[in-house]
Amino acid sequence: MIVPDETATAVPRDLRSLNDAEVGEVLAGWGHKSYRTRQLLDWVYKKRVCTFDEMTDLSQELRAQLPEAFRLQSLECAREQVSSDGTVKFLWQLADGELIESVLIPASVGQDGKRSDRHTLCVSTQVGCAYGCKFCASGIMGYRRNLDVFEIVDQVLSVERWRRDHLVESGEYSEDTLPKGQTLVNNLVIMGMGEPLANYDNLTKALHILNAPWGMNIGARKITVSTSGLVPQIRMLAEEPQQYHLAISLHGATDEVRSQIMPINRKYPLEALLSACEAYQQAKGRMIWVEYILIDEINTGMDQ
Ligand code: SF4
Fold first, then answer.
1. What pLDDT sits at residue 10?
2. How far apart are CA 270 and CA 279, in angstroms?
3. Is the CB of 138 under 6 A from ligand 1?
4. Residue 197, ligand 1, Cβ within 6 A
């Protein structure tokens, strides 16, 4: 009998919170060959199954061991709302009853009358938000907690499963003829509920899993991280090897106006923010996006 060594955690962790090396370490501790790690991760990220029992090419011994160290806990879809332009808003219920949102946005129809296959998913990173921007529902709700790595990753996986279920329900495909490994979501914007850079460690680990070839394999250049302006974390993100896009929620071009609607500006005023943006641009050689909501009589003057 193979006895799990101490690399196996006492309390099972969600497998989608671990990278390939961490999963491989547990399997190696059980005496399994390294190719088993790749097989296991393929079931999770390419075939996107929800239970260990569905992983039919793993040995029965390994399938029996997996729940000792890992779990797979899918987000529960509390509501889905489809708009006439094809946008789908998902309300997810987490295990502790908290609610978060993701929004799937298909590409608009171009001038040639065609629609590209780009499907963007707007992803949440926290329940609520501590930063209190005056125009934002998450800010008004206040901060409740950070999302765990798997709760960020599973927003993408759950939308992929939703699409698979729809293809089968609509009769377009059967379970046997479903296109294997194809992904619907090919663009990510990290600008759902929460300030992404306030959950830095979980965010960057989740993005690594979503970007990695053994994970969801979404290109780093297809991932945009939006921030209200957390200067130290922008500088940290600039040091990461991946070429993520950066977007700044600006919404005010002077400290006076910006501080009025975005309290973060009192801690990191525009001069500090612009300096961090320059550092990011120098490190990545990429344009930075700026987001600006027009609020009548607040930030629409000529000085803005
Ligand atoms: S940082 Fe983002 S999520 Fe938080 S209150 Fe401001 S706009 Fe809303």
1. 66
2. 14
3. yes
4. no
